Input
Amino acid sequence: MESSEEEDDLPSIESIIPQSKIDSVHQSLTEKGIRKLCCELLDLKDAVENMCGDMRTKYLAFLRISEEAVEMEHELVELRKHISSQGILVQDLMSGLGREMDEWKRSSDDADESEEVEEDPFPNEITDPNSEFLEKIDILLAEHKVDEALEAVDTEERNNPELKGAADTSSYKSAFIERKAVLEDQLLRIAKQPSVSVTELKHTLNGLIRLGKGPSAHQLLLKHYATSLHRRIEAFLPSCSSCPTTFPATLSKLVFSNISLAAKESASMFGDDDNPAYSNKVVQWAEREVEYLVRLVKENAAPSETVYALRAASVCLQDCLNYCKALEPQGLILSKLFLVLFRPYVEEVLELNFRRARKVVFDLNEADEGLESSSDFVAVLSEFAIASDTTMTDCSIRFMQIVQDILEQLTHLAVLHFGESVLARVLQLYDKYIDFLIKALPGHADEDGLPELQDHTILTRAETDSEQLALLGAAFTILDELLPKSLVKVWKLEVENGGGDGGDSSSSPSLISSSAPELKEWKRHMVQAFDKLRNYFCLQFVLSFIYSREGLTRLDALIYLTETPDDLHLPSLPFQALFSKLQQLAIIAGDVLLGKEKLQKILLARLTETVIIWLSNEQEFWSAFEDESTPLQPSGLQQLILDMNFTVEIARFAGYPFKVVQNHASVVINRAINIFSSRGINPQSSLPKAEWFTEAAKSAINRLLMGSDEASEAEEEYECEVEEDGHIVLPEIDDDDEHSESLETSSLSTMDSFESFASASMADLESPSFTDSES
Output
């Protein structure tokens, strides 16, 4: 029985719900709940959006109602003032009527005919015209009929001249003056209303002028134009950010057109020519508006270090000075004031832009997306990237990009007034750029770097000759070609093609000094900056030739004290090495500086000159000759003179200027002769003639170039005139024949190294910069 009861308590197998059905039921319920919840959330979102829209609409309506309430409040205040003035007028009428009644009562007691007096209680009003006028003017003033009141006042003053005099102090005059004051107050109220039109204002101001209140009318006129201007400017200012470079043009047009209109209205209404006081007030007011304009431009311009600020300042300067010039016939001289106010801002913008330029040029990690990458000079400077580190080429390209970007922002009048300042900053930037390149040359100490390079750029040394020549080529190209082209566009100067017939195919533009005098001194400094790089390169090149890696000198005085010259009369080994090294450098320069023959000649001439300058300044070298304990031989002096002549002939042979080299060589030779003479050696008896040294030097060059078998034939072709005195003086070259003779002197060389140096005209070598009409 117990087992049957337990079975009854257990549910049957058919009543057990499968787990899958339970899961499906719960899953369906969950999906339905989620869908319902999403629908409720969407409804809630729509309700919130509707509520936000209603709130925005109600908020705008609230603001509009608030503004209307403020305007209504002002109107109530004005109405209250008007009621108060009407109350005062009624009180005045009542008191006047009381006085009249008292007078009438007193007069009625003394009259003979009482009946006539009772019929006409106001006899004075009929018989007294003054009282009648005052009553009339009071009515007109109460009804705000200012035109009729003004006409009545003018008529009364014409009929009674004593009203304008100072002697009359009657009660009628006092009452008349009081009425004029009320009329003036009504005219002032009309003129001060913000919504008054120009026509109504002029009509009101004419009324004040008729009342003798010209200064007040003039002040109201200027105030009206100032208020109108400020209202228009406030409406325009929010859009300045959308046009950061052109908004000063709109502002200046608003300000100066407003000044012009005010000046014309002032002259037509007040006759400024007849009354200087009014014209002076116009000038003072215009000056305040110009100050306001300058302040607005400063406050709404882009950051001063951007080109947008520079362009905005240039546009503002251009337009404002043009407007100032247009206002001068009206007697308004505002250009000086504007320049005084605006100059500090322009200088600040220029300074900050060039500071940014230094960061962009020297910090190669600094990116400036505003620079154009498709400029004409990018292809020109990129040619030097093949022979040098790309870091240096990027620096050169960035230099020209940033400078051109700055120059393009300048307007004509900005160049006229700030051209010297711009040129000075370009010179400063170029000088730092040259220092940057010098830092990349061998032998430069790392601690001598630029502040802009600290913790920013790690330079790669230009170790090879091709890399160093590429640096020089980039710097020279910027100086001689790219910068002049950019300046020509800005300064709008004439372009003069320079270069000889057989030289540089891409002739560089030159700036005419007579067209822009400020460029003359600037270009001299630019050349001096480039000379720092050139001289440093030449010095390092010569020092690497003179000194070995161990620090020992190869050009020692012992060469001329101990060694005996050979029968071939060749120069000493260091100078033979110099000739070979110059040949190698010329070959490299012909490839790296292709088309830059002028620079090639400058470098080779300076290298030859640097060797002799070093020798003349090396005191240790001369101390060995001056030491009396060291014996001297005439052969040593002969070898030294031959080496100097050999150096001069290298310069002549290559076709570049040799006069400076010749002068330095003469100094060395004269010093050596003096030392040997003081030691008892007679140069006249122990040395050959000057022609011998010249011919020996030429013969040595030909032997080194072609070999001894062809030396005699080469000497016949390589002839030159030599003076018969004892000095090293080579023939002069006429300016007209410089190019042809340079070609002839280089025709012997069968090597490509010197052919490129003979192709440019000698006139290009006098100044490695712009052509100067005065030089």
In short: The radius of gyration is 49 Å. DSSP finds 29 helices and two strands in the chain. The CA atoms of residues 86 and 142 lie 7 Å apart.
